[in-house]
Amino acid sequence: MLNLVIFGPPGAGKGTQSDKLIAKYNLHHISTGDLFRKHIKEQTDLGKKVKEYTDNGILVPDEITIAMLKGVLDENKGVTGFIFDGFPRTVTQAEMLDKFMKEQGTAIHAVVALDVSEDEVRTRLAKRKEIENRSDDEEEKINKRIFEYYNKTMHVLPYYHGQGKLHKINGIGDVEAIFGNICSAIDSVK
Ligand code: AMP
User: Fold this and answer.
1) Is the pTM value of this prediction over 0.90?
2) Greater confidence, 142 or 58?
3) What's the average model confidence in pLDDT over 12-19?
4) pLDDT at position 80
5) Is 53 helix (H, G, I), strand (E, B) or coil?
6) Does residue 53 have its Cβ closer than 6 Å to ligand 1?
7) Is the CB of 36 within 6 Å of ligand 1?
8) Is the CB of 93 under 6 A from ligand 1?
9) Atom in ligand 1 nearest the alpha carbon of residue 86
10) Is the Cβ–Cβ distance between 32 and 87 less than 8 Å?
11) Which of 86, 91, 109, 108 has the alpha carbon at shortest distance from 29?
12) For position 40, which CATH number holds?
């Protein structure tokens, strides 16, 4: 199995690079943001619970997020690998992910952190707003999401650094070149 985490601020290019990694390494994509948006669209109980948070760019509480993730892992036993996109976003989530992987007799093998400056992220998110029309891409909400990233999510990086799994990749430039650098990092641990 090959289990990856793709990490970075909102707008870093996690979705774009995930799509390419899925195709190359035959991975099952788990994006907690996509899962929440699906629940909200389908107006499930979970969707009703999390809408307030996601609409405002605030992290959904760990217990809700972790329970949802565990459910998805249980539904996908037997896949050749996972790519986690937008998860973990807190150290508690990272610890629980390690626990779940261990229970399945596997582990997180590499964490790819896309390095993109705050200015670049703001420019990209403003552009994405015009294209995707996501309800959390308004300026005030973008500010909240960026705040959440630098205040809570960044702390996950030292956690993985301590495990020797962190691969920082420059996320600015040509998509294919960035992908090549990511693949080199992954292939070095495979
Ligand atoms: P994303 O598409 O990954 O930017 O996620 C959109 C929104 O979903 C975030 O702003 C959070 O409100 C929520 N969300 C997604 N993943 C997580 C997570 N791992 N922990 C907490 N909240 C999350």
Assistant:
1) yes
2) 58
3) 95
4) 94
5) helix
6) yes
7) yes
8) yes
9) 3
10) yes
11) 86
12) 3.40.50.300
CA distance 128 to 106: 36
Cα distances (Å, whole numbers) of residue 90 to 54, 87, 157: 16, 8, 10
What is the distance in A from the centroid of ligand 1 to the CA of 1? 25
Q: Which residue minimizes the CA distance to atom 19 of ligand 1?
A: 87
DSSP state of 80: S
How many angstroms does the Cα of residue 164 sit away from the middle of ligand 1?
25
Catalytic residues: 14, 89, 128, 134, 145
Cα–Cα distance measured from residue 27 to residue 125, given in angstroms and rounded to the nearest whole number: 26
Nearest in space to 18 (alpha carbons), one of 27, 9, 137, 10 = 27
Share of the chain above pLDDT 90, in %: 87
Number of domains the chain is built from: 1
Q: Is the CB of 18 under 6 A from ligand 1?
A: no
Distance 33 CA to ligand 1 centre (A): 5
| Pocket test residue of 29, 34, 40, 54 for ligand 1, highest count of atoms within 8 A of CB | 54
Where in the sequence is the domain holding 153, given as residue range(s)? Answer: 2-187
HEC string of 3-32 equals CEEEECCCCCCHHHHHHHHHHHHCCEEEEH
- Letter string b/e over residues 127-144, b meaning 16 or more CB atoms within 10 A of that residue's CB: ebbeeeebebbeeebbeb
24 neighbors 132 (Cβ within 8 angstroms): no
